[in-house]
């Protein structure tokens, strides 16, 4: 390995740019929860918090993540649609 002085490039950066010791790293579970959810006491160990954390990790630039978001929307939206259809059927007849 060539020392940085002989490479002709930038010198080594000896400063420590590690993360703050007070906060866990971003890849730990529960780091993508909105601040409102944290104030309500949700975290990644409860079902609603885990769902919010999962949805918060989705990246709209990745096609698979977009498909996952649409599937989640259908899965959670269909019971509401079915309920409204049943309500309209009951009111009509």
Structure write-up:
The chain starts with a helix and ends with a helix. The mean pLDDT is 80. It contains four helices and no strands. Helices cover 54% and strands 0% of the residues. The relative contact order is 0.07. The protein has helices at 4-7, 35-39, 47-57, 63-92. With 93 residues, the protein is mostly helical. The protein has one domain. The radius of gyration is 24 Å and the shape is elongated.
List the helices and strands and how they pair.
Layout: H1 4-7, H2 35-39, H3 47-57, H4 63-92
What letter string, H or E per element, gives the SSE order?
A: HHHH
Count every beta strand, where a strand is a DSSP E run of 2 or more residues. Answer: 0
> Could you estimate the helical fraction of the residues in percent?
40-55%
The unreliable regions are none
Structural class: mainly alpha
What is the radius of gyration? 24 Å
Give the overall silhouette.
Answer: elongated
Average pLDDT metric: 80
- Beta-sheet strand percentage? under 5%
Count of alpha/pi helices: 4
Largest sheet: none
Number of domains: 1
Distance between the termini: 82 Å
Highlighted features:
93 residues; mainly alpha; 4 helices; 0% strand; elongated
Short description:
The chain is an all-alpha fold. The protein has helices at residues 4-7, 35-39, 47-57, 63-92.
